[in-house]
Amino acid sequence: MEGQSLTECTLDGARTKRWVLEASDCPALEAHRMSRVGIDEAMRPYRRVRLSPPGSFVLACVAGSGRILLEGRWQQVRPGMICLAPPRVPNAFHADSAERWVFAWVRYLEPIFVLPIVGAVSPVVPQGDAGDLWRIVEGLRAEWAGAQDAAMLHHWLELLQATIKRFAKPWWRSEPRMALLWDLVAQDLGRDWTLAQLAHQAHVSQEHLRRLCTTHLGRSPMQHLTYLRLQRARHLLETTEDKLDVIATDLGYANAMVLSRVFKRWVGITPGDYRGR
């Protein structure tokens, strides 16, 4: 993780301001498997590290900037950006400048038998306006601070869930060639895919495929292939007793050692530690 060893932590600092709505206080959140919704105005030394979060995480930045760990890489988050993170993969973010970093966020609670809202084909940095999600969370906060009308809370949460689903939806579902490509890849992850083969299957140039994936997914085509493989590896580690050598072969890796190296780089821990958790 860029040479850093992650340790689970929660650090606000004296100047950070937070509003959080917990499912324990507002049971209506549980209808969408949301565990909490919040708005943070973060100042250094604000920091969050979750080594194995039990659900998806959504962040929408509207002011300032910070850093978030996604897929093993620290990325800068700027105003207007939306970030999505799947469950049970290390997730960390912190304020790293003197200015106030303002963002709305949602955490989910999704058992392994539930299809998470941020899944294997969701973009890590989706196209869209973070202000849309921000305004909904602000509306929810205002209702909670005021009348707490059950019907109004229901409508705000329905709107919030629908907006997050739109962000998490694979962009290529409206692009038939892309849909066919990634559906084919998902069905044959053990194949020794190359960029040229992926572009040929999609009937586009390699450069055009690279540009599409980078713009809409925040990953290159080959990075997305790795992401799909590791999401499948996580599922097999969670739900089967298959040996790592078997999983590696099924996913197109030469052996368990290669899979372990890639898994740790992207997920932050070894497959054995992941299965143990």
CATH topology value of the largest domain? Jelly Rolls
Structural class of the helix and strand makeup? alpha+beta
Strand order of the largest sheet: 1-4-9-6-7
- CATH architecture grouping of the largest domain: Sandwich
Largest sheet: 5 strands, antiparallel
Oligomeric state, counting identical vs distinct chains: single chain
**Stretches where pLDDT falls below 50 for ≥5 residues?**
none
For the record, give the distance between the C-alpha atoms at the N and C termini, rounded to a whole number: 19 Å
In round numbers, the mean pLDDT is: 90
The number of helical runs is 9
CATH class of the largest domain: Mainly Beta
What Rg, in angstroms, do the CA atoms define?
A: 19 Å
* Run of helices and strands: EEEEEEEEEEHHHHHHHHH
Q: What proportion of the residues is helical, as a percent range?
A: 40-55%
The number of distinct β-strands equals 10
Shape: globular
Structural overview:
The protein is α+β, with helices and mostly antiparallel strands and 277 residues long. The protein folds into 2 domains: 9-169, Jelly Rolls, CATH 2.60.120.10; 172-276, Homeodomain-like (Arc Repressor Mutant, subunit A, Orthogonal Bundle). 40% of the residues lie in helices and 20% in strands. The protein has helices at 130-145, 150-168, 176-187, 195-202, 206-217, 221-239, 244-250, 256-267, 271-276, and strands at 9-11, 17-22, 34-42, 47-50, 57-63, 66-70, 73-77, 82-85, 91-94, 101-108. A 5-stranded antiparallel sheet has the order 1-4-9-6-7, with no helix packed on it. The protein is globular.
